[in-house]
């Protein structure tokens, strides 16, 4: 998980991350978002709204880490939704996430 969060931090430093539900929804609708990361402890209603927006605009999403971990990775307070706005960072994050899933048999 640390490598995935580290990659998210790199994306933030490169200026390729948007955070917060409102700004992420805007990034999705403007076609900037390549991957949405949803905190695992988000409310079901908020999760459903984000997923519906992603599905409507064809943006991939994952449910990963808790809000405090996502916030810490990007150097802010807790964040429930984070948008990765670059294909290369998206691919790197998904690659590292898949390795974690394989390692833990998910």
Question: Topology, please?
Answer:
Elements: H1 2-13, E1 17-19, H2 21-29, E2 35-38, H3 44-57, E3 60-63, H4 67-73, E4 81-84, H5 87-103
Parallel strand pairs: 2-3
Antiparallel strand pairs: 1-4, 2-4
Helix pairs in contact: 1-5, 2-3
What does this structure look like?
The structure is a single chain. The chain has 106 residues and is of the alpha+beta class. It has one domain: Ribosomal protein L30/S12 (60s Ribosomal Protein L30, Chain: A, 2-Layer Sandwich), CATH 3.30.1330.30. 56% of the residues lie in helices and 14% in strands. It has helices spanning 2-13, 21-29, 44-57, 67-73, 87-103; strands at residues 17-19, 35-38, 60-63, 81-84. The protein has a 4-stranded mixed β-sheet, with helices on both faces. The longest helix has 17 residues, at 87-103. It is globular, with a radius of gyration of 12 Å.
Please give the domain count. Answer: 1
Report the CATH C-level class. Alpha Beta
Any idea what the CATH superfamily is called?
A: Ribosomal protein L30/S12
User: From the coordinates shown, what is the CATH architecture?
Assistant: 2-Layer Sandwich
Biggest β-sheet, characterized?
A: 4 strands, mixed
- CA(first)-CA(last) distance: 13 Å
Average pLDDT confidence is: 90
The proportion of residues forming helix, as a percent range, comes to 55-70%
Biggest β-sheet: strands ordered side by side in the sheet: 1-4-2-3
How many DSSP H or I helices? 5
Low-confidence stretches: 100-106
SS-derived structural category? alpha+beta
- Give me the CATH fold name: 60s Ribosomal Protein L30, Chain: A
How many β-strand stretches? 4
Overall radius of gyration: 12 Å
Would you list the SSEs in sequence order as H and E? HEHEHEHEH
């Amino acid at each position: 998980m640390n490598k995935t969060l580290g990659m998210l931090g790199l994306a933030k430093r490169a200026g390729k991350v948007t955070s917060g539900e409102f700004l992420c929804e805007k990034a999705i609708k403007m076609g900037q978002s390549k991957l949405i990361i949803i905190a695992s402890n988000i409310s079901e209603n908020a999760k459903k709204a984000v997923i519906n927006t992603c599905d409507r605009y064809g943006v991939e999403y994952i449910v990963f880490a808790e809000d405090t971990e996502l916030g810490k990775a990007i150097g802010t307070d807790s964040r429930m939704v984070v948008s990765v706005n670059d294909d290369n960072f998206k691919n790197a994050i998904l690659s590292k996430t898949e390795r974690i899933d394989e390692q833990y048999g998910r």
